[in-house]
Amino acid sequence: MNTHFSGIEMKSVKLCAVIALSQLLPACVMTKAAYVAPGAVYGQQARILSEPVCQPDSFGSGPVEIIRIDGLKTAQMLSIPNPVSYVPPGEHKFTIFHAVGTLNFTGHLKLNAQANTSYVLHCAGAGSRFWFTEGENGPAVGSIDF
Fold first, then answer.
1. Were both Cys, which of 62, 65, 98, 134 would link to 105 (CB 3.0–4.6 Å)?
2. What does pTM read for this prediction?
3. 77-129 pLDDT tens trace
């Protein structure tokens, strides 16, 4: 009888471990990590940083997200945007997403990225305008991609 009891106890310990892991693993998956584009080589890539919040010069504000670079997804879920992306030198196409309440804004930008250069994606008009600058306050670079 004691053997039967320890078997039940062991099963409940295993069940608790499985439940605990199922709760912890999604948190690990949702950790924000940098997106590294194919071909980006450490020390030779450009760094792209998104403003954390769109400048609210008309109505509302919220996060600005790069959801695609050169047609490739940068994150698995829109709610977990990548804070920074790295791309190899050359021209790249970016799909930008911004949501304010029930309104969604999408933009398409091109950027000819230079090696070892940092760029910042800016947003204003609650998501109706997107642009890149070289560095935080540098000159505007890139263009709209249709």
1. 98
2. 0.71
3. 555 555 789 999 999 999 988 877 777 788 899 999 999 999 999 887 665 68
Outline where the chain has alpha helix (H): 2-29
Q: How far apart are CA 97 and CA 109, in angstroms?
A: 11
Residues 6 or more apart whose Cβ sits within 8 Å of residue 122: 51, 55, 64, 130, 131, 132, 133
Which helix (H) or strand (E) covers residue 80, if one does?
A: none
Q: Residues 35, 108, 50, CA angle at the centre, nearest 5°?
A: 40
Rg (alpha carbons) of the chain, rounded to whole number: 22
d(CA 61, CA 64): 9
DSSP 8-class letter at 114: P
Q: Are strands 90-100 and 140-141 parallel, antiparallel or unpaired?
A: unpaired
Mean pLDDT of 42-63: 75
E runs forming strands in 10-139:
35-36, 46-50, 64-69, 72-73, 84-87, 90-100, 103-113, 118-124, 129-134
